[in-house]
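Sorry to interrupt, but I need a hand with the structure work. Go ahead and set the record down below:
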Amino acid sequence: MQTPDGLYVFLGPTLPRADAARLLDAAYLPPVAQGDIIRLCERRPRAIGIVDGFFENVPSVWHKEILHAIHRGVAVFGASSMGALRAAELHPFGMIGVGAVFEAFRDGRLEDDDEVAVIHGPAELGYPSLSEAMVNIRRTLADAVQGGVVPAATARRLEAIAKALPYRERGYGRMLRLAAAEGMPEEELADFRHWLPGGRFDQKREDAVELLQTMRRWAAAGAPAPAARFHFEHTALWDRALRDAVL
């Protein structure tokens, strides 16, 4: 399927597809995996947006296939999750990073991939998130401190408790139960728990929205793709990956 403007976005649990479609008229694809960018380039896209991507049990999108797209004159945008990780690594070569998560990885304030990782449900249910991303917890705790909900020391301890959890088990409920079990002040935890429903911040969603808005403005302006700032090396490994991906 070719979109009218040649815009494609890899999207999963970060933002519901219906919400995304209201922001940008594009073809929405499942979270990106290894080989997907190679295959998509056969459709001659104008721009690709990467928000979500598979990892662990499914090989992650390869850096070189993103460079392949850039080399072919495709504008590649990244934000929020896998897109932020790859953009932080590849922005010197022409990938366009968007949002606070990308900036934190680009600047070295965040380094661990698990900061954006979540466990989610299947595609037929819309990839519902079943855990909370660490970047969202960090932003929410920072807002709680700024709003005077909890002291900075309490937020730092809660952040450490959440970070120590495996990403599959990470969430506000688990974090608060562990905090209570280790004897953190009950009143402070109660204040945070009461504030949380209206105060929690979804940084990944915010960045995904910004990516779609950025792509929409870029497409409307008729802007060219950034020039490739590298020499693309054709190796035997790449040629094999190219053959395997298009089979």
